[in-house]
Each structure stands twice: as C-alpha cells, then as structure tokens.
Amino acid sequence: MTQLELNRLLFLASTAPDPDLEAVESLLKLGADPLGPYNSFGGCTLEELFVISQESECAVVLPVLTELFLRYGMDVDSSEKAVLHSLTWVRNEYGVQTLQLLMDDGLPAKEAEAFAVDLVGNILQREAGEYDPALDTEWRKSIDCAVRMILLLASYERVFTGSRYIRKLMRAEEEDFAAIERFRDWEKYRCDVVFRDYGDRHAKETGEKIPWYLGTATVYEKESGKEVRKLSLIGYLDMERLEAGNISF
C-alpha cells in the first residue's frame, strides 16, 4: 500500500461521523501520516479535522484524535502546510483542548505567536464589524473561546518570554511570568469583548479598503465573577503605532 493510500484511509477513518479509534490507531501503526497528503490536491487529515470541528457537535472527538496522532509522532512544527490556521476557527472548548495538547507536546513559541497573529487578525479584520456580541450568543461564545486560547498560549513560559506580541495582548510587558501562569487553567475563566472602530487597511494587490478594529477583552473568574485581567486585541502590524501613542486603549 502506498503512503497516499494509507493517508487516504486515515482521512476516511478519522473524519467519519463516529470514528473507529482502533482503526485509526492501526493505520498510524502502519505509517499513515495525519499531516501528509491524502489526495492529489495536498489535503491532510489534521487540517480537514480542524475544518469540520468548527461545529461543536463535530469537534468532540478532535482532542482524542489529536492526542492519538501525537502519540504516534505527529510534529505540527515540521509540516510544510500552515495547518494551525484552520484551528483558529475551532472556537469551542474542544478547540482550546486541542491547542493545549499541541502546546504540551512542545509547539515552539514562534508557532504559537503565528497562531495568535492569525487568531486576532481574523477577529479584527473579518469579524468585528459583522457581529454584535450583545445580540449574537453563538458568536459571543466563539470570541470567549478565542480569548481563552490567548490566555492559554501566554501561560507557557517559552511563549510568554519569546513573544513580545503575546505580552502586548496580555498587557503584561512589565509583569513576571508567575502572574500569567495561572491561565493554564483556562476553563476557570470567561471573557467578554468590546470593539471600537479604528480605520481601514488597504489590500496590497487591489488597494481595496479592509475595515480594521481594535478590541478590549475582559477576563472574569467563573466561580467568583471577579474581573482578573484586561487584554488588548490589537493587530500585529499595529504594535509600533500603539507604542508611539497613535492609538490607545
């Protein structure tokens, strides 16, 4: 059996409505690669799982499959595909659990920062002007999980010390890591977000104006209801303007 055929069987087994985990593990033992192509277009199993897991009811098995893939040697950092971009849209608790598995497996700080850049960019550039968190319950849940992904990333010392951007998001440039580590327990918190209009970006290719927003996230302890932190949702390219005092929160 060729590698492509093995990968195709892994894709079919993993994305079935009720995945057979024993069949998945047997294929992994034979050398099937969740990051390798399963068709002539270069699709890979992990990325497809991220896509279908954007719906919570389909996402339940995502952390289980991800843990299995990691157990058999999957290394997301070695992939030529930017598979983690699709995970930025898995805005449910299963998506956060999956991100934690990847972080516990040693995802490098540069990959974690790239994930945060994509995540925040999606929110500010594509979503903020389309939804009202006060009215759209599902989107509010989605944003809550997105902010908890940022909290989770910051709770790893290699990311906190290695990513100035994430320290900016956390408003923690003058703080020690000890103040941030507690957010590893992301399930203990909930988050609200408020947006304000900032201006337009221009697409390089077409010159098209793209609306861009800034946001502030407030983090609360679920148990006590106490506010414990504020985050700045700022695009990566706006960092210098923030430091220059041209924008503020």
Element layout with pairings:
Elements: H1 3-14, H2 21-29, H3 45-52, H4 56-59, H5 62-71, H6 84-87, H7 93-104, H8 109-127, H9 137-154, H10 157-162, H11 164-169, E1 189-202, E2 209-221, E3 227-233, H12 239-244
Antiparallel strand pairs: 1-2, 2-3
Helix pairs in contact: 1-2, 1-3, 5-7, 7-9, 8-9
Written description of the protein model:
- The chain has 249 residues and is of the alpha+beta class.
- It has one domain (3-186).
- Helix content is 46%, strand content 14%.
- The chain has a three-stranded antiparallel beta sheet with strand order 1-2-3.
- Strand 2 (209-221) and strand 3 (227-233) form a beta hairpin.
- The model has no long low-confidence stretch (mean pLDDT 91).
Determine Rg (CA atoms, Å): 19 Å
Q: Looking at the chains present, what oligomeric state does this protein adopt?
A: single chain
**What's the pLDDT, averaged over the residues?**
91
Which series of helices and strands comes N to C? HHHHHHHHHHHEEEH
Measured as a percent range, the helix fraction is 40-55%
- Terminal-residue CA separation: 58 Å
β-strand percent reads 5-15%
Strand order of the largest sheet: 1-2-3
State the domain count: 1
Shape: globular
Uncertain runs with pLDDT below 50, 5 residues or more?
none
Number of strands: 3
